[in-house]
Amino acid sequence: MTVMAEKEVMQFLASEDKTFQEFCDQVLKYISLKEEIEYGLRKSVSVKRLGMFELHCDDLIFAMAKRADYLANKLVQRMSKDHLEANKRLCEEFEQIAEKALTTPANTSELMELKAYIEKVEETTIYELENRLVQAKDRLAFLLEYAISTPQDIRLNNSTFQWYERIPEVFTEHKVIIQEKQKQYEEALKLRRERFMEELDTYSKQLEEFFGFGDLADVNKYLKKAQALEQKLESAQTTTLSAFLVMKLEPYLEQFESISEAASKEYSLEKALEKMQSEWDEIEFNLLAYRETGTCILSSVDDIQMLLDDQIVKTQTMRGSPFIKPFENEIKNWESKLILLQEILDEWLKVQATWLYLEPIFSSPDIMAQMPEEGRRFTTVDKTWRDLIKQVLLDKHVLAVTNIDKMLDKLRKSNEFLELILKGLNDYLEKKRLYFPRFFFLSNDELLEILSETKDPTRVQPHLKKCFEGIAKLSFTEVLDITHMKSSEGEVVELRDIISTSKARGQVEKWLLELEADMLASLQKVTDESRKDYESCLRIDWVTKWPGQAVLCVSQLFWTLFVSQSIVNGKQALSDYFDLCNHQIDEIVGKVRGKLPTQNRVTLGALIVLDVHARDVLALIKEAGVSSVNDFKWLSQLRYYWEDENVMTRMINTQLAYGYEYLGNSPRLVITPLTDRCYRTLFGALSLHLGGAPEGPAGTGKTETTKDLAKAVAKQCVVFNCSDGLDYIALGKFFKGLASCGAWSCFDEFNRIDVEVLSVVAQQILTIQRGIASGGEMLLFEGTELKLNPTCAVFITMNPGYAGRSELPDNLKALFRPVAMMVPDYAMISEIVLYSCGFVSARALAVKIVATYRLCSEQLSSQFHYDYGMRAVKSVLTAAGNLKLKYPDDDEEMLMLRSINDVNLPKFLSQDLPLFSGITSDLFPGVKLPKPDYVAMIEAVDVHCQRLNLQMTQNFLKKILQIYEMMLVRHGFMIVGLPFGGKTSAYRVLAEALGTLAENKKLVGMVVENRVQIIVINPKSITMGQLYGQFDPISHEWSDGVLAVSYRSFASSTTPDRKWLVFDGPVDAIWIENMNTVLDDNKKLCLMSGEIIQLAATTNMVFEPMDLEAASPATAFKRFRRSPRCGMIYMEPELLGWDPLMSSWLATLPKTLTDIHKQILKDLFYRIVPPCLTFVRKSGAKELSPTNNTNLVRSLMNLIDTQLGGLSDEGKIKTYEDKIVNSWLEGMFFFSLVWLNIVDNVDAPQNPYSLLFPDGGSVYEYRFIKEIDGSDAAKFARLEFKATWELWVEKIKDAPPIPKDATVNQIIVPTIDTVRIQTLAELLVTHQKAVLFVGQTGTGKSVYLNDFLYNHLDKEIYKPIIINFSAQTSANQTQDIIMSKLDKRRKGVYGPPLGKRTVVYVDDMNMPMREKYGAQPPVELLRQWLDHWQWYDRKDCSSMKLIDIQLIASMGPPGGATGFCTTAQRCGPV
To answer: Which of 165, 974, 1291, 1371 is the most buried (most CB within 10 A)?
Structure first.
């Protein structure tokens, strides 16, 4: 190993003719040298003795070995370099062959060249390349042992050897291309040959003629022929009809006609084709920028699709015509283009729909990291999408997309990718759900939202409550370790083990699974510790030291233990323990009456409920003389035992292990004999591996009892409100979650599901029950293998005999043990709840509550919205508890009376109020209620009434305060009453007042209020799917409804503001049933997608119906004394009256009218209107459209408003004396009164009116005219009051004559009726008053109004929209028709072009077919528009405000197929 060796290596590397084998020999030589030096020399000459010296050779040996290794590596590097270059050359040659093989030849010569080239490649070149590949393999085999490859080298090697597999595929594809092109060129060659043959024949004939021209003597003759031909051509240019007659062409006329007809048809087809092509010239795609993605989406393709469908049909019809031959190729090409456009549109919209769903998901880097394959595919699709959109934006013309290269293929490929992505996404979510089964209870969107929070675990907290019933928040350390769990009530429980979220490495489901296990272990630990502590301290102190759930459980443990010991020890021991129980209850009740933190108060309230039941059971055992712990009276009770360091619950001969699910610190249900019976049945069902099925009327506690049993044994109980739209797929997902995580489910209103679905559900439940019975650990459920938790259970509750209920199939009935639930013991429940609230005289007060409701049901009138059931009792108890907390030292009877009044007075009709007052005064003699402290509230209400120009009457104020009080005790309430009762104004004023109080931080009672956010929906103006949400029938993709979006936004809001979701529309069983779990104590909206949304504590559900005749018994009212879920406030128009309306109207009159003028109008109203209204109501007069008094008076004011135009000009009015203006006001009032048909005889006033009707004829024959309106001044020159009554007939003289060329159906003969209708319509429409024309069929309503809109309105200002309602008209159609004629002014605001007004004329407004319960959705849509000036975008559920639009309508009187129209009372009837 000298310098010579290095020189040799350098010379070896410099020579170009060395083979790879020679390189290998050199490398092996130096490697063997290295090994010989390292191992051979080290052994022999490691240390050399040289006399008195020792020569240590280790460093020398190491240096020599290193030099040998260096030389070997140098050779190897050169070999690697040569190998890579050889591989690159190989790849380039292969790529060159592949590229050439896959090119498409442009002509025949290129085709032949390509074929020859590939044949040569296949015969020789490919074998040479294969030999080189073998050499490359040998080289690689050597280099893998001695060289280190970079990732780039590995990829190159991989690419090189893949060509061996890829090149046959290239040749196969090449053959396909060659075959296609060869066939194409052969056909083209045949066609050219045929054409050539035809040309050859032509030349041959000409040639034959040339042979005949060979005689020179006939040259003159040939010349004459040529000249004759020239003359014929010249004469043809000046041919006349007489020349044709000379030709005697009559025998050929039929042939001429057929030729002419064919030519005409061909011409018309040609023109039709040109017209179709020209129709696309101006049509462009509407592309809208999509959020902040930097790209666009296709919008509004309906018009394009309509034209495309129409043209495809036309084109196919034209192709079948016998006259299309001359344009056959053009029409075929046009049809191909249209069909290509149709296919592109279909694929485009399909890609867009899926892209819109997936784009927000894959925009999350966390999701992209967790789903790399799907992420790559989506990136590809996204790039394709953006590229295509860019190309479309360059030329937006619709037909231009057919010229974009391979657009259809790209879209189809994108759709294939998207289907794979969706499948991958669903598989990914399924894996996550199987890992953490509680994810089965979440919708896909919710789950994706949770899984995307990989970096910040704290952002998962808003979703915790969806997975864990009792956990609302977690305590995180600085390093994001979890130490405590918190309930929504604020209770904190320390976890046994600290959970490290960082160890999960971003996988949320991992630390959630740890949290689930730690939650169970922590609760078991807390229960054990509190059990040990129970014996070491006083019970009264112990109850406030531990979490509520542990207190209740351990208390029941020791009660069971002490009762068992007392039974064994005899009667005296039972009596002693009974006294001790009473003493303990008294202690707890005394503690409740004092000042306590909210947490402890809730715990003690629940403990009192259980302690009172425990005492009652003990009394029963004592009275029955039970002497054995095996006596049935003792065994039939729910008992708790501590066994093997765990709690075990028993009832009769069945037992359930305590679940340790943390459920927070929540109240408990009062246990009555009915509750005990239900518990026993459900316990027995679980021991037999069956489900439980409580059934009975609304308000009997079916769902609450099931939930309370789950609380008693600490199990998660998922309540789901069933609807008729649920399918077996959604339920199957739910069952997977139950079976995997061991939860209980309670399917509320189970018999609302369709029978077809129930039969499948029976098999699903049977599969789970059989799996539990078999004792297996795994379960195959619908093709998915699940880990089975045998503690799961399915319960169902049913309301029999209500609307929309199915009969359960027999195979499903067999899987559940039924238990009948009837009316509970109101007195017992009231007594125990009052005890838990700290009332001393609870028993006496409970008896009075029950007596109040019994007497009300017997003595008061029967109304749909009256409620005397369990939920009404509960509302009173809640109100009483709140008052006791606020005023602990006040008289209890006074607090109870106030609670009863607050809950019940709002719903009673005026005639029932005295009776109710008599009942309460008898039950609470001598109790006088102090006025509640609402000073600040009343001041705020007064301010906003003035601002909104409303009158704060005593009745109106009372109703506002009743709404506020109802809002505090009920999260769902209904404001019921006929139109003009002030319902909408009342809640709007209250909302404004609460906002003012919040700004000023003033107390209401003892609470600081918050401002109010309001969303208004008319539930009948859209379909059920558009309200709640629906699955796409084809893709099964879920889309949210208006209610779901609004409800979710309120539920996820973190602001302290109050939120009111107002349903202004009819309440019926079709849609309200889905709200049952929202309106009861569950407070959850259950969507068909499986999503369950918890109602925020700050949210109220407000319903504003006219009546409750069609409402569901389970939801709103009680027939047969069923209990509703909603509070009631009844608002009668009669109590409000029309006087406040008139006062508000007078404040809106022109400022030119003085107080004296307003007093004149007021006197006219007070003097004339009441007797006229009495006449209408009591004389037997029949109204064509039902109205109420306020409606008529409002219409009177509207008509007066339309005549006040001239009086608003201050300059003009000053030129007239007061007596003249006064007389005008009288005349306008009388004219308006006449046209409301409420005229009656009234005694003459002391001062006679200035302008009374003329003596001759009827009042309907005259109209009131005045000088200031711009009428002919000459008419008024001699009149004292510058106004007069003119016959309507006079106006006919001004009518224009009927045009001579008018068709019969266009002629409208001017009559007194046409003049009157047109004048009134003009007055109302030009003053923006909604108007409804009612009359029998055939009276000319439609004709007159159409003529008025098109011929008498200023076309520069007014744009009419005519809508003819029929029985089949839907709300969606109505909305689409109106929206198609409006422009977008700005975001969320729509209207006609600026400076214009749209008049929507609805003909036959009451014609749409009524639904089962009487609602007319198109009419409800119009009502939402008239009341709130908005409706909702059905695609994105956003609010759309409508401006500069007014309504005019006509209809026949109700009867037959048509009915009373709710919108009628929003319009002025004529």
So the answer is: 974
